[in-house]
Amino acid sequence: MFVSTALRLLLFCGFSSTTVGNPVERRATADHAVTFQSIYHPPSNYRIPKTLYGRSVQLQDGTLLATWENYSPEPPLVEFPIYRSIDKGATWTPFSKVTDQVNGWGLRYQPFLYVLPQSIGQFPKGTILLAGNSIPTDLSQTKIDLYASKDAGRSWSFVSSIAHGGRALPNNGETPVWEPFLMVYNNQLICYYSDQRDTAYGQKLVHQTSSDALSWGPAVNDVIGKKYAERPGMATVARLPNGSWIMTFEYGGGPNPANSGFFPIYYRIASTPLAFASATDQILSVNGKVPTSSPYVTWSPSGGPSGTIIATAASDGGIFINTRLGDAKSWVYYETPQPAAYSRQVMVMDNPDYIYIMSAGNLNRDNWVTDTVMKLPNLQ
Fold first, then answer.
1. Where does the signal sequence lie (predicted)?
2. pLDDT band for position 32 (50/70/90)?
């Protein structure tokens, strides 16, 4: 959830300068490590935090696309930049942008990139989708809109509006919608998001589904708090090799036996990605350490017979790894060269021995956008 520093108290790691080499002119085929590389430095006239909430995706040919929140001066309307790397994260160049085509508000918060693994309606396999929060300058409304690119990210078109909420303020009693996450299951496109519109809950996690990406079904609960003041949010989902699914989320105000912060990281494991509502809450803990705030989860087939679950959270520069299908006692923590950041993404590369970590900084800091490519630390 996008909240104030008073709630967050996140660890901030200072950024050091990194020299960016010239982009290569061909698709790289070798796998390699990239350590805390710069993607984008915003101009000095950007508003603090300048950048935030980075997201990336890898295309079939190995190309990486990245986007993030830009805190540029207004006017003009804010937009989501698209940067491209053709050498697997080592160098980046500006490629395109996704602009608000329907509201006249701009595209402000929480972009999410996704490549369709199959056709959905009129959108063929390989179409790139971007879901993001369109919000006017006065923050009076929130609207999760969907855009698509059928030409590898060069151009973008509005597809549909998924959810519409009230003021973009992360306070109980307000009615915004936040933080979309997309995936396909059973020939349907699913959008998970955080929802404050239900007066029975300060915030809850829900999903909507669509068979064509144009029209959407009703919001269905995934995680609700036990008390009104609790704020489960920021869901991400990954498929496991035994056919089950894992969802990570921050549980604002939820039980935290480590007393490590207001937003402890929880997860649920369900038989389908539509059944998280009936799954059991589990807290992510390593030797009593509980990470906090804005998690992200993914899964790699590398690392053992059950592969490797990889999770990250804003409280830590390292990653949390589980090779036993999410068993609560089997999480292990490994350091990484990528600093802790708000809503830091971790993604498995086309060579699943490697992971990609992208950061766009912390709340209320002077940020820029960086990435790291590294081999899974649990591999021998």
1. 1-21
2. confident
